[in-house]
Amino acid sequence: MAETDMPSFGGPNAEQIKYWNEAAGETWAEREESLDQVIGPIGERALALSDAAPDERAVDVGCGCGATTAELARRVGRKGAVLGVDVSRPMLGRARARALALGLANVSFLLADAQTAELGRDAFDLLFSRFGVMFFTDPTAAFANLRRALRPGGRVAFVCWQAIQRNPWMLVPGLAIARHVPMPPPDPNRPGPFAFGDRERIQSILSGANFGEIAIQGEELSLAPGGGDVNRAVEFALEIGPGAAALRAAGAGCELRARAADTVREALEPFTQHGKLEMPAAVWLVRACRG
pLDDT of 151-204, one tens digit each? Predict the structure, then answer.
C-alpha cells in the first residue's frame, strides 16, 4: 500500500491539487464518517453498475478516503487488485489507514493527478469513481489518459452530480451563505462538483476520449445532510462545498460565520419533517466501454 510524494502544484490541475491539499482536503478527511453517511448509498448504486468481479483489476479515480476502494477490493477478491488514485494527501492518508485496518493486501494507492499520471497500458478491467471525475481542467484529455490504462473491452463506471439546480441539498445552503459573502454562480465548464451536470457534456467528453457503448442514467433521490440533523447540516454547509469555500475566501470570522449559520438554518427548516432533514438530490450514473 505504497504512497508516492505529493504531486506538484504545477500542471493542468494545479488549482485543484492545491485546493485538495489544503483546507478542503483536511476537512473532508476529518468529516469522512459524516460524508460517507450522506453519499455512501449513492456509491452503492455506482458500485452495482460497475459489476466488479473476482480476479479483476480496478482503478478508483478520486478515491478520497478510500471507502469505495475498500469495497472494490472486497469484490475483486484476493486475486484481484485495486489502485486508489487521488491528489489529496490528507484524504489518501485516511484511505491507507482504512485499508490497513481492514487487512486489505490487494490495495495500493497513488498520490497523483489522474489526468496526466501514467497508470500503465491495458492494465485494468475497470475504471470506477464516486464523485471523483468532475475536477479535471480538461476532462476529455483525462478520460483519454484513463482509457489507455484500460484493457480492450474494459469499462468505466462512475456517478456524478446533475446540475446544481437539481440538487437543493447543496443549492439551498449555498444561496443562504451567498447572502453574506460574494459567491459567483458555478461555471458548468470549470472543474467543480457540478461540472458534469449536463448529460450532453458527459456524452461529448466520453465520445471525445474514444469510449463507446455510453449509457447515462439519471436518478433522483433524497439525502440527509448531517445525518438528518439540522444543526449538523449547518456545520456541514459551513465547512464543505462551495459555500464553505466562499467563506474561507472572504476570511470570514466568528461573527460572520454565526450570521451565515443562522441564515442556513432558516433556509433548511422547510425541508425538516418530524425532526429529520431530508433534501432532494439528482445524479447521473454513467457506464461506458473501451472498444
Answer: 999 999 999 999 999 999 999 999 999 999 998 887 888 999 999 999 999 999
For residue 3, tell me if it sits in a domain: no
Degrees, nearest 5: CA angle 115-121-123 = 100
* Alpha-carbon span 98 to 101, nearest angstrom: 5
Whole-number pLDDT of residue 266: 97
User: CATH number of the domain that 117 lies in?
Assistant: 3.40.50.150
Is residue 6 domain-resident? no
Round to whole Å and give the CA distance between 217 and 177.
31
Instruction: Determine the structural domain holding residue 221 and report its residue range.
Output: 14-290
* Cβ atoms 207, 290 nearer than 8 A: no
The Cβ-side half-sphere exposure at 206, using a 13 Å CA radius, reads: 26
Q: Which residues contact 79 (CB under 8 A, 6 or more apart)?
A: 54, 55, 106
